[in-house]
UniProtKB/TrEMBL annotation:
A 1,2-diacyl-sn-glycero-3-phospho-(1'-sn-glycerol) binds at R143. The keyword Iron does not apply. This is Phosphatidylglycerol--prolipoprotein diacylglyceryl transferase. The lineage of its organism: Bacteria, Bacillati, Actinomycetota, Actinomycetes, Micrococcales. Residues 278-303 are annotated as: Disordered.
Length: 303
């Protein structure tokens, strides 16, 4: 075994037992990512004129629908794992076992964000721009859950940084000898996501990207990286149009992001005056002192 190879942590580390409670580390990784993204997005929204923690009003919709979309997308792109004779249909909802697709999360989360933004009075694209780098940070943190679960690793490799996987793992290639190393795709995606964070931050400084442009860059960068990572993963995925379903989904993300960049560039040439929808900013919602005084005067009875 190469001394530079990456050992998988003991599988017992994937679960914590606190008295009667069983806590799955995968779920903790997802939760940590959500908290980190929420804090950072709040800071970015506030710097752009938003009320402190208005982000909470949005993520209360975006996070649950994002998690639902992530799980459903994974289940329906891996039907052989959930739909077979004798299968327990309740396993569809066992999110702690792993299996959450970011593409599905984006679909469900977009619906939830749209609802939350409408209720909070925030422009959807303003929220998306503030979220873009924070989303990549959350995804990087979440990939640690795949590491502790010993899942979603890549094809066998001779590279020195290969990942050690036990031959008893159900995903271990049948017929191959023990002791093989595999591409640590969880690590590849973590690194790619953090590079994406830097790309967005640098481009924002250079071009002052607003009107959805930062989120479009997120889609392009993440989609391109995910296409390559998905192409070397061991886990089964449905084949659509000659491509693994997740590769096709990542390609669609990159194309969507590229189209959005072109569209927003042609449609919006001015700076974003406010992240709020018309009539929904705090200044527009709250009456001015002069208005309050006039109202009080009108209510004062005439002697």
């Amino acid at each position: 075994m190469n001394i530079l190879s990456i050992p998988s942590p003991p599988l017992e580390w994937s679960v914590l037992h606190l008295g009667p409670l069983t806590i799955h580390v995968y779920a903790l990784c997802i939760l940590t990512g959500i908290v980190a993204a929420t804090i950072w997005t709040n800071k970015r929204l506030t710097a752009r004129g938003g009320e402190p923690w208005v982000v909470i009003d949005i993520i209360l919709w975006a996070v649950p629908l994002g998690l639902l979309g992530a799980r459903l997308y994974h289940v329906f792109t891996h039907p052989g794992d959930y739909f077979f004779d004798g299968a327990d249909p309740m396993r569809i909802f066992y999110i702690w076992e792993g299996g959450n697709a970011i593409i599905g999360s984006l679909m469900g989360g977009a619906i939830g964000a749209w609802i939350g933004c409408r209720l909070a009075g925030i422009k959807l694209w303003s929220f998306a721009d503030a979220l873009a780098p924070a989303m990549l940070l959350a995804q990087a943190i979440g990939r640690l859950g795949n590491y502790v679960n010993h899942e979603l690793f890549g094809w066998p490799t001779d590279l020195p940084w290969g990942l050690q996987i036990e031959s008893t793992n159900p995903a271990y290639p049948a017929g191959l000898p023990d002791g093989l190393l595999f591409h640590p795709t969880f690590l590849y995606e973590m690194i790619w996501n953090l590079i994406g964070v830097l790309i967005i931050l640098v481009l924002e400084r250079m071009f002052h990207m607003r009107w959805g442009r930062a989120f479009a860059v997120y889609l392009v960068s993440y989609g391109l990286g995910r296409m390559w990572i998905e192409s070397i993963r061991m886990d089964y995925s449905e084949i659509i149009l000659g491509l693994r379903s997740n590769v096709l989904g990542a390609l669609m993300l990159a194309l969507l992001g590229a189209g959005m960049l072109v569209w927003f560039h042609r449609r919006h040439h001015d700076d974003e005056a406010s992240i709020y929808l018309p009539g929904r900013s705090p200044a527009e919602r709250e009456p001015s002192p002069a208005d309050v005084s006039a109202e009080d005067a009108n209510l004062t009875p005439t002697p």
